[in-house]
Amino acid sequence: MTMSTPKPYCLSLTEYKRFPTREVKIGGIGIGGPNPIRIQSMTTTDTMDTIKTVEQCIRMIEAGSELVRITAPSINEARNLELIKNELRKRGYQTPLVADIHFTPNAAEMAARIVEKVRINPGNYADKKKFDLIEYTDEAYQAELLRIREKFTPLVKICKEYGTAMRIGTNHGSLSDRIMSRYGDTPEGMVASAFEFLEIAEDEGYQNIVLSMKASNPIVMVQAYRLLVSRMMETGRNYPLHLGVTEAGDGEDGRIKSAIGICALLDDGIGDTIRVSLTEEPEFELPVCKDMVKRYQQRHTAPLKEIISLPYDPYAYSRRHTTTIGNIGGKLVPVVIADYSSAELIKPTSLEAVGYRYDATSDKWHIADGAADYIYVGNNSVSFALPGTLKIIQNPGNTAHPIEKIKCFTLIPAKDIPTLTTEKQARFIDLCIDDEYVWSNAFINDLTKQQSIILLLSSTSKNRMQALRCYIIYLNENHIARPCIIRIGSSAGTLDEQLIELSADSGSLFLDGFGDGILLQSAFKTDQNTKVSGRTYLPLTSIQQFLNNTAFSILQATRTRISKTEYISCPSCGRTLFDLQETTAKIRQRTHHLKGVKIAIMGCIVNGPGEMADADYGYVGSGPGKITLYKGKEVVKKSIASEKALDELIGLIREHGDWIEAE
Fold first, then answer.
1. Which of 377, 554, 592, 605 has its CA 20 to 30 A from that of 154?
2. Region of residue 344 (left: phi > 0; alpha: psi -120 to 50; beta: else)
3. Which residues on neighbouring strands pair with residue 392, listed in sequence order?
């Protein structure tokens, strides 16, 4: 395919090829180069509590963490890293330690003499964030860079002397006021921020560096890493990359958001080490990391038509233009299709799993914000009146819907397109792109004649995200603007693994504006809740609910369809000033019905107004037992007693007109 598009950001858009980076040694561990993708996590204990921190480190290491990061907010914690390191070594653990530094160069300089790696954030290492918009002349900007050089160079020299590695970790929410004034709150600004510090290090002959571009919004995160790699390719650099979606949250939402952002990059060969930031105990992050990384071990990819260049901008979100057919495509939000093709009998109660609850007394349906738009019934029948918004997709020849034929649509095999008459009735086409026929000129010509069709795209190849992306680009090249439903199935052995697979393979496409709907399917056995040959069999309704929730969460994480409250919560660390998990659960319990409202829950000011830049409201620890509340980036209430803070937060939401009463 020949297209004129933006500069490349990876080696191949159609097969798995890792971007070749230099190897950075962190103690006895190599990152980048020929090494596998490394996994890591971060402690949540008070760094001054040596034994508690050591014991948590051991739990993380035994769960698979190949590096352990520990916060050092002041020089006292930095000094205590030596006691922690010595105790770990005494107990036989050689895992490299990483000091996490914000605001305090003297702590970084101390830690660099003790641990194997230091992480600094260029947004706050030499700057205080005040959200001031200052117009810099070129001379004033250069003067600021000289000031940063004076602050940062001593650390670089210490790292070089002691053989300590460094991560220059840019965070979207903590860009300095200077960067914000010139570049705005953008991926371009994130890359520029990292490069300023990188160039200072290179001037000192120091290159033992890992880079990261984290954001709580997967779209921003992916665009920033792509731009970073593109900039490295332009300038002949090849530093290893640490991947992560920061403040991803907890539970399924945190895992889905992380899988979408991290795997979108890993699929394109970008990334050398990953950390999943969950508001949970850190050892729970490692199994999620393992599920992601094993997707790329000895990965064999199906041959695809090579994409020479992209017909869209991978550094700026834009949804693919499609025609509108019924409630699908155009500027409409993506639809969700639930799979009922394996159900033996579909009853009104069957639909509770996908957001529809029937009240026989009032003869009314209660429809949730996360209710599916269609159900795919295959050859099954529905013998009752459907809820007003729900429609049916069925296999050809299924005529068992006499009640509401107007709500029934047929799923037609792609091979039957030449036999179709041209009509306005919407029809769904089952299009597996692994079939060579669907790439033929004859098929494309037949497709062009049909104006009222919706394509259900699927693939069984290992690199199906690239395959589906490639086919959608192929459709665009042939000027076919039909809506596309992303159809992804999983046969992984556990629902946890399926969650990662479904999120990674579909979410990456929605991040780039591809997809007018989603249909998730599971090969998980649907029977009694018993174990047979070590495998759990679940009720069909449990799997349908899992798939429906996952589909809506994928659309929420990619900002393509908002159906619930969004929580941006940090994973906790030694700086946290309250029980983050307990507090997050309490806030979620009281606010989970506020569709579309984004609430940030941050353990301390380091992850406060900057890291929650995308949130509508912020709940931030500002001292022991004290909370500060934010509206956007503005402080509205300071030093509230923690026992009163949740009620005050709800009052703030009411005051700004975003509160509704729960049903």
1. 605
2. alpha
3. 375, 408
Task: At 88, give phi and psi (nearest 5°).
Answer: -65, -45
Rounded to 10 deg, the angle between the 642-655 and 580-591 helix axes is: 30
Q: Tell the residue number behind the tokens 């490349």, with chain if given.
A: 8
Higher pLDDT, 511 or 178: 511
**Helix 464-477 vs helix 495-511: angle between axes, to the nearest 10 degrees?**
30
How many C-beta neighbours within 10 Å does residue 315 have?
A: 18
Residue type at 166 in one-letter notation = M
- Dihedral over Cα of 328, 330, 331, 334: its sign: positive
pLDDT at 274 over 90: yes
Nearest alpha-carbon partner for 480 in 450, 510, 509: 450
Of the listed ranges 118-127, 330-339, 512-521, the one predicted with least confidence:
118-127
Contacts of 309 (CB under 8 A, 6+ apart): 1, 2, 3, 4, 5, 6, 8
Phi, psi of 553 (to 5 degrees): -70, -35
Helix (H) or strand (E) holding 364: strand 364-367
SS (H, E, C) 43-97: CCCCCCCHHHHHHHHHHHHHCCCCEEEEECCCHHHHHHHHHHHHHHHHCCCCCCE
φ, ψ at 174 (rounded to 5°): -120, 35
On whether the CB atoms of residues 389 and 371 are closer than 8 A, the answer is: yes
Amino acid of residue 500? I
Tell me which of 142-146, 296-300, 302-306, 407-411 is least confident: 302-306
Edge-to-edge strand list for the sheet holding 273-274: 209-214, 165-171, 117-120, 97-101, 67-71, 38-42, 273-274, 242-243
3-state secondary structure 215-261: ECCHHHHHHHHHHHHHHHHHHCCCCCEEECECCCECHHHHHHHHHHH
pLDDT tens digits for 601-610?
887 665 545 5
Residue recorded with tokens 């299709």: 337
Rounded to whole angstroms, how far apart are CA atoms 280 and 261? 19
Output the CA–CA distances (angstroms, integers) from residue 389 to 306, 407, 660, in the order listed.
41, 9, 23
Task: With beta carbons less than 8 A apart as the criterion, state whether 575 and 603 touch.
Answer: yes
CA angle 314, 296, 455 (to 5 degrees): 55
DSSP 159-195: HHHHT-EEEEEEEGGG--HHHHHHH-SSHHHHHHHHH
In whole angstroms, what is the distance from residue 553 CA to residue 251 CA?
Answer: 11
Q: Is the C-alpha dihedral spanning 457, 459, 464, 467 positive or negative? A: negative
What tokens does 172 get?
């979207």
For residues 449 and 538, give the distance between their C-alpha atoms in angstroms, rounded to a whole number.
44
* Number of neighbouring beta carbons within 10 Å of residue 310: 19
| Cα–Cα distance measured from residue 438 to residue 560, given in angstroms and rounded to the nearest whole number | 28
Query: For the stretch 533-561, what's the b/e string if a residue is b when 16 or more beta carbons lie within 10 angstroms of its beta carbon?
Result: eeeeebebbebbbbbbbbbbbbbbbbbbb
Which of these, 114, 26, 40, lies nearest to 77 by C-alpha position? 114
